[in-house]
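Question thread 4412

I'm putting together a teaching handout and wanted feedback from people who do this every day. The idea is simple: show students a protein as raw sequence, then show them the structure tokens that encode its fold, then repeat with a second protein so they can compare. Below is the first pair exactly as I plan to print it.
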Amino acid sequence: MKKLSTIIFAACSMLAFGQKVSDYKYITLPSKFETFKEDFGLGELLTKTLRGKNYTVIPADKLQWPSEAQSNPCNVLTANILNDSGLLRNKVLLQFKDCNDKVISSIKGASSIKEFKEGFQDALKQTYVSISPANPASQPIAQTKVQKTNVSTQSVTNVSTSISDNSAVRFSNGKMDLQKIQIDNSQFILVNSNSSSPFATFKATAKADVYRVKLQNGETTLGYYENGNIIIEIPQSNGEFAKEVFSKK
């Protein structure tokens, strides 16, 4: 029971804490991009672009942060540019990390321009189309996380109670038996009680009975209901998908 509750709590935390770059208002850049010999004007270029997308770019020195950012450091993202170049092309990797040093977005850009400064700047520009304009929530992210954590903790309590009452729904694909645990109206997980993490985490999409699925190995795919069964499209090494059918027991 204790292990299963831990699994459920981990799944709840992952779902509740999922953030996008556009959820944030403040972004800070490091004083130096460590994987480059020099700046090549990348910091100034990125700063200008982020401001154009309505982000507030603040200094690396936290003592210079505005009071709102200082009081809620988890409302601040760190944007870093990494040198990802190969032999023939200048490449960059633009990463955004949260206050827990977790990468929430990673965008690649490449350029055929051989000169370093022009090539790196051109590669960085290729990433900008993937950066959504700032659209922060009305409440501070740090506060929202606390509230969602409380909700998730309550969900764990409710789910644990239902399991103890033997009311959890069980599914099987013939090779493994899994419990379906409903986190809330739009999210559920499939759990093997012998594992330390959920086999699959489901989050509802705009289409009825179709879900975004994160598998235990970190891969993402689609899942859906079909004739009362849960179907997961499992990615294969050749780029194809295998249809895994879990039937209710």
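The second pair follows. I'd like the answer to focus on this one:
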Amino acid sequence: MNVTILRLNPHWNGEKYASLKYRDVVDNLKKKKDLPHIQVLTGIRRSGKSTVFRLMINDLLENGANPKSILLFNLDEPPFTSVWENAAELYKVIETAEKITSVPVKYLFLDEVQQVKDWELFVKGAYDTQRFAKIYITGSNSDLLQNRFATLLSGRYFANTVRPLSLKEIFKISGITDKYTALSDRIKMLTLTDHYLSWGSFPEIVLKTMDNDVKTELLNSYYESIVLKDCIVYNQVRDSALFYKLLHFLLSNAGTPFRYNTLAKAVKSNEATVRNYLGYAHRSYIIADITNFSFSLKEDSRPQHKIYGIDNGLMNVIGFQFMRREEMLLENIVYNELVNSGYDEVSFARGKEECDFIARRNGVYHAFQVCHTLTPANRNREFAGFNVLNDNLKVESKTLITYDSTDTVGDIRVVPVWDFFGTNQID
């Protein structure tokens, strides 16, 4: 145990973690670092939650914190198996660390805390007794914020989601800081955009140089880890073969409208099981389930659904290959970038035509269509998607997002994806 604790806390020697790429979420976390509230970070595995921890530890070191007063555990590691069934064992591990350093722990970082049974009781007890100045925790399932945790710690925590890199973050990391620098090195900008469309934005895939076959192998490893640990084992799924079949089907048909009963027939199951399995996948962040737009929150007013994957790279190595893949991958990117950019209540509208996305930002609704390549043959059809909007739904803007086309047609803006989400979003 001592060796593991020392390995997980190299900052005890007073040196900051090097070669970390800044994440936008850190700005928000810094604003709250002096408040006693528990800071919860959730998000899919390998999205960079541990890196965010280390960025916050660097900030503590820069501001004069004693390095040995900062303790980091990755509870996913085998040496902590004794803690998994007994949260009280965490106190013994912390005491072991304090014996090593002879310094009381002031800042506690618990990575992948969902591994520990009744962890919320430990966190609440530590918070109530003011055992630490600040507690940071991460988890790979949105269930972390549900049920007993929400009840026990209501009003005592902040929650943020860490997602794979956004296009804005990818551009900033690569030195593209505004539209001018993007256009000055157009080849670099489009190369980054193409890589994002094909290989996604998990930090390791973006930041490390590797052959395509290695990327494929790594993404397959991510997929297996996420599905097995955060879906099948975590939820005690009985029919793992059906779960894999369902998820494979969904990731191969992202953006295609469906109803639960038709989805159940497609995978030869029943509606109740499909709903449960889809919910497990959604809560592990590997997919997002959105519904048709309605001012009513009643389920019978939102019977249609669409699925989008958290990452294009996962979709490319897992899903089937078919004709409209280029279009599907761009639409999947647009969904994720809407979320990354602070839009909420993302839905879609269907009538004789379909509007790909209705999304709210700062209380105002916006409409979006997605078309990879706008041509004379598809132009009218793509613009017609906005016709599904009616007088009951007032939108602030109408935007058709493409791969690399720019235009203005009446009240509709045609904007490249790299411009709308990449350069326009950079501060």
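Top answer:
Good format. For the second protein you could add a caption like this: The CA atoms of residues 87 and 424 lie 46 Å apart. The chain has a mean pLDDT of 92.
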